[in-house]
Amino acid sequence: MQDKIINFKVMGDQRGSLIALEENHNVPFDVKRVFYIYGTQGNITRGNHSHYQTKQLLITINGGCQVTLDDGKGNKETYTLNKPNVGILQDELVWGSMHNFSHDCVLMVLADSYYDDKDYIRDYDTFLKAVK
Ligand code: TYD
């Protein structure tokens, strides 16, 4: 799979650190929605779906988790996210799951679409057919 990692510039000084996210600059799409996941137990897997249209950018702004991306064409990779200055891009028609959450993990997700249940592919075989 081509590199999905995005490194954000940290603007830090003696007061601490700051990262700015801007649509179509360091976020490679129009941002329609932001949601965040927190309070997830370490033994829980979330996600386990793909989207027909939606692109997402995942950033652990606190703590960490692992993200597995699978393009349905034989490319499957697990990434460790544990820095607030690193994001992973999940393109449309990529199957994604998040697991191994630290107790303090806050996973922020930026998306280029409004929430629409019809955009979800929750069945893996349906996903494989959609990829073809
Ligand atoms: P869900 O898709 O199950 O989360 P995950 O993919 O992390 O396992 O979403 C949980 C609930 O939140 C579900 O009822 C749908 C709702 N939801 C929204 O209303 N808006 C959103 O943007 C998202 C991502 C979920």
How would the blueprint of this fold be written?
Layout: E1 5-7, E2 11-13, E3 16-18, E4 33-38, E5 46-51, E6 56-62, E7 65-70, E8 76-81, E9 86-90, E10 95-99, E11 106-111, E12 120-121, H1 124-131
Antiparallel strand pairs: 1-9, 2-3, 4-11, 5-10, 5-12, 6-9, 6-11, 7-8, 7-10
The structure holds thymidine-5'-diphosphate.
- Structural category: mainly beta
Q: Overall 3D geometry?
A: globular
Number of helices: 1
The percentage of residues in β strands lies in 35-45%
Spell out which ligands are present: thymidine-5'-diphosphate
Q: Stretches where pLDDT falls below 50 for ≥5 residues?
A: none
- Percentage of residues in helical conformation: under 10%
Q: Could you give a short account of the major beta sheet?
A: 5 strands, antiparallel
How far apart, in Å, are the first and last alpha carbons? Answer: 16 Å
Q: Report the order of strands and helices.
A: EEEEEEEEEEEEH
The strand line-up of the biggest sheet is: 1-9-6-11-4
User: How many β-strands, per DSSP?
Assistant: 12
Mean pLDDT: 97
Rg, nearest Å: 15 Å
